[in-house]
Structure to design on (339 residues):
């Protein structure tokens, strides 16, 4: 636990470093903090903060900089949030989030986040409800079947499955008729549980076919939703903190190229309401010490369907990033909820 004096000096040090990008010395800290403390006292407090792992001393300077742990304490206990005003997102940017084309809303939101933050904007595409309206099986050849899944919104997913045994077309019609009669409008998870409960009442071979179809349905839903839009990756090339570290930049660009890890992180952060902040490799999914992520979920008609956020250096103006991310999430939610 830190006393009030230590908290005040740490807060001042973090704010100065975010603003200037230069290690903060005891003399600067004395002037900026407004505390009437001797240089020796400030040096002692800084030594204590360094011992706690909250600040560190770069080799090239007598000043100190925050560590990821120091940023975390600052964000959790010392950050003064800005009032949420829509002016944080200019009117011309808000006009880009029109409800006519959802995919355009997602793409534009990523560019807006990047433009306003001057870092990287990321948005996951809305997750579709894993519900089917109609299913159909077509025999293509021996042990090779085409599964056609139609979603409530008319979206059609086609998948070819290979079965352990051959089925006649009449058996396939029997299976599809059963699913359409008893399971249409239900989620894949509910159908899976229902089939488990009724397995003994169904002919074994047809039950296996329908189980395979349900698994394919899960994969089809996942394939159609595993999308993340990334904008502004090149902004990181101009960030002073990364200019001399090509290794860090290379790892970051690998992250954006693969995108899968970003999807996992954003999905995790989308399970909770409000803005979430990951600092300096806190998440094993994005284990990069120099990066922080500020994210928030967005919804359609009150149901959380995706996540958006900003990725930048740990030395970022967290109060402004929180404001940008929060308001953009609200604007995206509003645009996608309009019919």
């Amino acid at each position: 636990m830190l006393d009030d004096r230590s908290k005040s000096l740490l807060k001042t040090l973090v704010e100065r470093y975010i603003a200037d990008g230069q290690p903060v010395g005891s003399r600067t800290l004395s002037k900026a903090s407004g505390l009437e403390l001797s240089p020796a006292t400030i040096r002692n407090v800084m030594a204590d903060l360094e011992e706690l792992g909250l600040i560190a001393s770069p080799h090239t300077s007598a000043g100190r900089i925050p560590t990821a742990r120091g940023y975390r304490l600052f964000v959790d206990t010392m950050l003064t949030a800005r009032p949420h005003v829509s002016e944080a997102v200019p009117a011309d940017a808000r006009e880009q989030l029109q409800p006519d084309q959802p995919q355009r809303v997602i793409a534009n939101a990523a560019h807006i986040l990047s433009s306003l933050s001057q870092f990287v904007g990321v948005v996951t595409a809305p997750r579709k409800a894993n519900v089917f309206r109609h299913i159909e099986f077509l025999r293509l050849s021996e042990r090779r079947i085409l599964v056609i899944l139609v979603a409530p919104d008319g979206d059609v997913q086609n998948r070819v499955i290979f079965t352990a045994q051959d089925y006649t077309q009449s058996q396939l019609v029997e299976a599809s008729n059963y699913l359409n009669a008893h399971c249409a409008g239900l989620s894949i998870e509910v159908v899976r549980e229902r089939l488990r409960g009724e397995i003994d009442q169904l002919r074994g071979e047809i039950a296996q076919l329908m189980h395979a179809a349900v698994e394919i349905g899960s994969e089809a839903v996942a394939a159609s939703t595993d999308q993340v839009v990334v904008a502004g990756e090149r902004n990181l090339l101009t960030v002073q903190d990364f200019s001399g570290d090509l290794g860090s930049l290379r790892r970051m660009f690998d992250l954006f190229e693969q995108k899968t890890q970003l999807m996992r992180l954003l999905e995790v952060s989308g399970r909770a309401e409000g803005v979430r902040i990951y600092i300096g490799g806190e998440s094993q999914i994005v284990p990069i010490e120099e990066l922080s992520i500020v994210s928030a979920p967005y919804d359609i008609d009150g149901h959380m369907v995706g996540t958006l956020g900003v990725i930048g250096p740990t030395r970022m103006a967290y109060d402004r990033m929180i404001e940008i991310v929060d308001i953009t999430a609200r604007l995206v939610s509003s645009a996608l909820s309009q019919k």
Remarks:
- The beta strands are 55-56, 65-66, 120-124, 134-141, 144-150, 156-162, 228-231, 276-279, 291-300, 303-313.
- The mean pLDDT is 80.
- The first strand starts at residue 55 and ends at 56.
